[in-house]
């Protein structure tokens, strides 16, 4: 906890000084393992209800191949993303399956999700303007959509981390936002 | 003498006045060329709604020009798109360019009020089982997803039915947006789409030239950099057709003219007859073009190309006059008149037969040919005696040479083995023809090069555009009935998709369900709320007031039925306009468009599907055209038989038992040629038969003139000259790249040659002037 505070403090100090860096520097800072797994805790704010819904679960990914996003509470649900499709499963039963190949919205959504969760900066740079702040081994990135179409899916993304991605905040047009924190990250 | 001369003079002057009047009239009206491939297609014989639907679907192809830019590398492809788009800006006044994605579709939210009545197919399936449990789970999952992809409306649409609707409306789109550009999802290489909406007539030569002047250098430039550009659009085919017609006019047309000039120089050793020979041709073509323009408003380039072939026959009349005037001192015309008239009548009959073809282009050709012949004939009869005043009575060496050659020829009356041989040949040919199969292939009407057709097909298949020539037409009293019929068809079409026969389809009822269907949907949504809303509300920690508010919003939403009239006001209806066909008298119909290619099995399935529904019709224009071609083919077979019968009767009247000397050469020539053609090709078609009619016409000319002049050697010379010039004019069409003309020429060439070679076999002993 103290370490974290120190980190936060160092961030505050270094932010004004740190230059806006290229995402290639980020890539140098971060580990890019072929697979990664861990726990997540998520808070979603629904503007229409002015309420927050908390959820948590596990995630696992294989770089460029698959992301498994398993919500364990308050309900059980598995979201499986591959470059080809997004599948939603519950207790092994497929609820819905969307193909990226025939639906541009699904393709864009999948692209952003893959890009953000696996920190593929070159991929994200196609859709977003990146503002990067690096202080020692810690980094903060803000993504602003380049196109209105991306804006419709996500209006702003804030990411921060060190060797791994630690926290993501996704802002949506309607005022909804989702904050996800990652724990127990294992290669 | 003087009164006869005066009469001749005034007739010649009158003819000059007529020619001038026609030419001035046509010039005044304006000269307009037509190069449309479509003009060569038959007009629809079907009911007006089908015709309208076909036209409406074709229009989307007619006035668009699509470019697909592909490269191995995304970045290079995108750069190329920007360069080409910049280059195409100069076409601003002719075509509107679209190469960037339109600003995001906020307009789609106009469907939000109808989220409970316009359900997606998937949501409908989920709502139909277990009271919609699956939809409830999906809604929960969307609430918990890090990203929803669509903004959530937990009170107005807690089960995210609108999200499902949007997802289904946007799926199966062949184009995705990539860096603001339009990317084709089906292409393997990174490929981007550019679309030009033409604001000018794609058939206009000046528009074609303007577009190609900009487009071709751009394409070349990119190709040198290893970037592939594929094109699709009617304009390209029209331009290609025009280019081909122009080039063939200047190669085949010019070649035939040069050949004829050379022939005359060799035979007459003077250039003077050339003027006399070419004058009727020139006048004939001019008058034909003028009258065609006056009657049709515009003249097709293929007509003109064919008209170049007219040269050959029109030359006949002048040749006979000149040859004959070398040996007969006076009143050449009077001596020749009967033969000339019979010749004209038989040729006109042969050409007029072209008008039987179902294609407007061929009808124009028929008119052009008949008019050209008649005008050339009148010119020979009225002008040549007046101008061709200077006579040199000296036999032509060529006539003597040809006659010697002919005398070495066997004769049917003198050589005993000849008759059986010819009979056997004729019988064998007859047998081959009897066995011969027809091939009525629509590709015969294609004038575009194979490479361009393939390029076009590739682009259209990436865009998942089915042929605009095959579709289902649904008719009904009103929209409601139409949409219900479509909804009955939907599961049947889906099963064809499952059997992988049909790639996909688009139907109006997919975006605008019938009111009956919408009320059913509303009922399903009410059931969903009844069984799952309390559970969802508790997960969302909603207050009682919020729960009731959502319930009230649902009651309100399920009452919102979208009527066709309201739907038409929405921007989302715009891309669907081509699916709605408005008949002349207030009838409505819709078109179900089919994606992918049309297999025989799919065609059969669609025919059966349409047969079971009285309000549904399967329209297959390609098949229709093939059917039409085969119908006209069999009609022309009848016409040929009729023509031979008529000719035989006419000849019997004048020549009694000698009629066969005239009719056998073209008949046997045709039989041998046709049998040979069938042995070398896998089927005959309409255009081969039309060629046989021409062989008959010219062959009759030959026989009639020879008989009328009692086989004189100068007539033989004139006949031979006209046979060679006809070969030069029509036979050269065998070199054409246009399938229609090629199939014509390939039969005329051997047919006429054989007729000419057979004619001397049939002659009676010569009693001509140089005996």
UniProtKB/TrEMBL annotation, chain A:
Keyword Cell division: no
Keyword Transport: yes
Keywords linked to the UniProt accession: Protein transport, Signal, Transport
InterPro entries given in the database record: LolA/LolB/LppX (IPR029046), OM_lipoprot_carrier_LolA-like (IPR004564)
Known partners and oligomeric status: Monomer.
Name of the protein this chain belongs to: Outer membrane lipoprotein carrier protein LolA
Annotated source species: Marinobacterium zhoushanense
Taxonomic lineage of the native organism: Bacteria, Pseudomonadati, Pseudomonadota, Gammaproteobacteria, Oceanospirillales
TrEMBL record, chain B:
Record-linked InterPro entries: Mycobact_MmpL
SUPFAM superfamilies: Multidrug efflux transporter AcrB transmembrane domain (SSF82866)
Membrane-traversing stretches: 249-268, 275-296, 302-323, 335-359, 365-386, 417-437, 662-680, 686-704, 716-735, 741-761
Keyword Chloroplast annotated: no
Keywords: Membrane, Transmembrane, Transmembrane helix
Gene3D superfamilies to which the protein is assigned, alphabetical: Multidrug efflux transporter AcrB transmembrane domain
Leader peptide range in chain numbering: none
PANTHER family (alphabetical): MEMBRANE PROTEIN MJ1562-RELATED, MEMBRANE PROTEIN YDFJ
Entry protein name: Membrane protein
Organism of provenance: Marinobacterium zhoushanense
């Amino acid at each position: 906890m103290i370490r974290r505070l120190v980190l936060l403090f160092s961030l505050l100090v270094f932010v004004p000084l740190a230059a806006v860096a290229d995402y290639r520097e980020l890539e140098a800072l971060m580990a890019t393992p072929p697979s990664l797994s861990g726990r997540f805790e998520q808070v979603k704010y629904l503007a229409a209800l002015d309420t927050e819904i908390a959820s948590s679960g596990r995630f696992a990914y294989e770089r460029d191949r698959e992301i498994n996003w398993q919500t364990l509470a308050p309900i059980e649900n598995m979201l499986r993303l591959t470059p080809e499709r997004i599948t939603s499963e519950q207790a092994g039963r497929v609820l819905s399956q969307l193909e990226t190949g025939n639906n541009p919205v699904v393709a864009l959504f999948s692209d952003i999700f893959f890009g953000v969760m696996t920190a593929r900066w070159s991929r994200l740079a196609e859709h977003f303007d990146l503002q990067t702040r690096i202080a020692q081994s810690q980094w903060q990135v803000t993504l602003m959509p380049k196109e209105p179409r991306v804006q419709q899916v996500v209006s702003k993304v804030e990411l921060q981390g060190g060797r791994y991605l630690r926290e993501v905040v996704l802002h949506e047009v309607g005022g909804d936002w989702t904050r996800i924190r990652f724990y127990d990250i294992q290669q | 003498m003087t009164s006869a001369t005066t009469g001749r003079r005034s007739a010649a002057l009158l003819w000059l006045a007529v020619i001038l009047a026609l030419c001035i009239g046509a010039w005044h009206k304006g000269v307009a060329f037509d190069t449309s491939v479509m003009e060569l297609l038959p007009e629809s014989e079907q009911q007006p709604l089908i015709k309208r639907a076909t036209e409406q679907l074709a229009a989307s192809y007619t006035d668009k020009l699509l470019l697909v830019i592909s490269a191995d590398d995304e970045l290079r492809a995108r750069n190329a798109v920007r360069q080409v788009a910049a280059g195409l800006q100069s076409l601003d006044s002719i075509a509107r360019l679209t190469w960037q994605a339109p600003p995001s579709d906020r307009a789609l939210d106009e469907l939000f009020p109808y989220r409970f009545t316009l359900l997606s197919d998937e949501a409908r399936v989920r709502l139909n089982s277990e009271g919609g449990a699956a939809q409830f789970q999906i809604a929960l999952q969307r609430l918990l997803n890090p990203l929803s992809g669509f903004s959530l409306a937990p009170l107005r649409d807690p089960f995210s039915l609108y999200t499902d609707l949007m997802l289904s409306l946007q799926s199966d789109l062949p184009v995705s947006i990539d860096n603001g550009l339009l990317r084709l999802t089906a292409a393997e290489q990174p490929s981007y789409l550019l679309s030009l909406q033409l604001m000018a007539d794609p058939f206009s030569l000046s528009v074609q030239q303007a577009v190609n002047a900009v487009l071709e250098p751009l394409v070349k430039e990119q190709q040198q950099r290893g970037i592939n550009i594929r094109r699709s659009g009617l304009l390209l085919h029209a331009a290609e057709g025009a280019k081909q017609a122009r080039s063939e006019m200047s190669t085949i047309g010019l070649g035939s003219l040069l050949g004829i000039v050379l022939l005359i120089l060799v035979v007459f050793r003077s250039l003077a007859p050339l003027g006399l020979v070419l004058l009727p041709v020139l006048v004939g073509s001019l008058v034909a073009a003028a009258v065609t323009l006056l009657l049709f408003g515009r003249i097709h380039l293929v007509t003109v190309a064919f008209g170049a072939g007219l040269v050959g026959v029109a030359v006949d009349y002048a040749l006979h006059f000149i040859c004959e005037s070398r040996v007969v001192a006076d009143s050449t015309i009077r001596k020749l008149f009967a033969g000339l008239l019979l010749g004209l009548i038989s040729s006109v009959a042969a050409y007029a037969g072209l008008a039987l073809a179902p294609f407007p282009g061929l009808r124009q050709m028929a008119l052009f040919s008949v008019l050209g012949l008649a005008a050339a004939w009148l010119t020979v009869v009225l002008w040549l005696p007046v101008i061709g005043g200077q006579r040199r009575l000296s036999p032509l060496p060529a006539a003597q040479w040809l006659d010697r050659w002919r005398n070495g020829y066997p004769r049917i009356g003198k050589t005993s083995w000849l008759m059986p041989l010819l009979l056997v040949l004729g019988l064998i040919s007859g047998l081959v023809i009897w066995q011969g199969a027809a091939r009525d292939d629509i590709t015969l009407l294609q004038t575009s090069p194979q490479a361009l057709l393939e390029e076009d097909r590739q682009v259209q298949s990436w865009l998942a555009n089915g042929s605009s020539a095959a579709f289902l037409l649904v008719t009904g009293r009103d929209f409601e009935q139409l949409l219900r019929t479509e909804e009955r068809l939907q599961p049947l079409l889906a099963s064809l998709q499952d059997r992988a026969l049909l790639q996909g389809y688009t139907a109006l009822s997919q975006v605008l369900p019938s009111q009956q269907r919408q009320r059913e949907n509303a009922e399903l949504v009410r059931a969903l709320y009844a069984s799952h809303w309390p559970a969802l509300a508790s997960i969302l920690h909603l207050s009682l007031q919020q729960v009731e508010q959502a319930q009230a919003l649902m009651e309100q939403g399920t009452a919102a039925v979208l009527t066709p009239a309201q739907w038409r006001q929405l921007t989302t209806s715009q891309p669907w306009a081509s699916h709605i066909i408005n008949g002349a008298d207030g009838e409505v119909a819709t078109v179900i468009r089919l994606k992918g290619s049309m297999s025989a099995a799919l065609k059969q399935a669609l025919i059966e599907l349409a047969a079971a529904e009285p309000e549904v019709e399967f329209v297959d224009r390609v098949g229709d055209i093939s059917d039409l071609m085969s119908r006209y083919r069999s009609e022309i077979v009848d016409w040929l038989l009729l023509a031979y019968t008529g000719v035989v009767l006419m000849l019997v009247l004048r020549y009694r038992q000698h009629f066969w000397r005239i009719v056998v050469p073209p008949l046997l020539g045709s039989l041998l040629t046709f049998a040979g053609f069938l042995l070398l090709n896998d089927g005959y078609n309409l255009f081969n038969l039309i060629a046989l009619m021409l062989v008959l016409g010219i062959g009759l000319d030959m026989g009639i003139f020879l008989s009328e002049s009692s086989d004189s050697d100068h007539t033989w010379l004139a006949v031979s000259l006209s046979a060679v010039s006809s070969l030069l004019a029509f036979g050269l069409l065998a070199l054409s790249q246009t399938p229609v003309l090629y199939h014509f020429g390939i039969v005329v060439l051997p047919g006429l040659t054989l007729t000419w070679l057979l004619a001397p076999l049939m002659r009676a002993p010569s009693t001509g002037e140089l005996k």
